Amino acid sequence: MRFPSSVLILAGALAMTGCSSMVSLNPFVTDKDAVSDPALAGVWSGDNGNSIYAIRQDGTSYTITYMEKSSQAAKFQARLVKAGDAELLDLVSTNEDAFQIPVHTMVRVWPAGNSLRIAFLDSDWLKQNAAQHLATTTADDRLLITASGEAVRSFLMKFGTDEKAYSQPDLLERVQ
To answer: 3-state SS string over the chain?
Structure first.
């Protein structure tokens, strides 16, 4: 009985995110730990104008709508936590699908005036460290973190701010 439920959880989790190869079943930012940065709110353009990110702040949480010219909009909720000088978003899809489980993706953000850099925290280096320090399972090249949210948060405070935790950030420009 345990194996089929594990397969279902893993399949649903991996289907929920096409952007990151490291996801968590549990949130790593709690309401208590969440902070806000008004510089994140706005409409941002990326990929030479082929993608749009609309970010709306609501207290210490964010609603994010991501749109590409060739696909439907994807909707997310996010909470922000500071780790030293780094700002990390706990991003989870809000698109409803009975066959998918919402998973949490770790994103580092660098807001600066009319530009916003973003990078998924899923480098090979970070995945190797996560596999050594957290409860995880793998499928193909994806890592699913099954550890508690508090364990993931502690891990990210230690490793998530290192430059080796992410690849080249994407640069977005403010539209509004």
So the answer is: CHHHHHHHHHHHHHHHCCCCCEEECCCCCCCCCCECCHHHCEEEEECCCCEEEEEEEECCEEEEEEEECCCCCEEEEEEEEEECCEEEEEEEECCCCCCCCCCEEEEEEEEECCEEEEEECCCHHHHHHHHHHCCEEEECCEEEECCCHHHHHHHHHHHCCCHHHCCCCEEEEECC
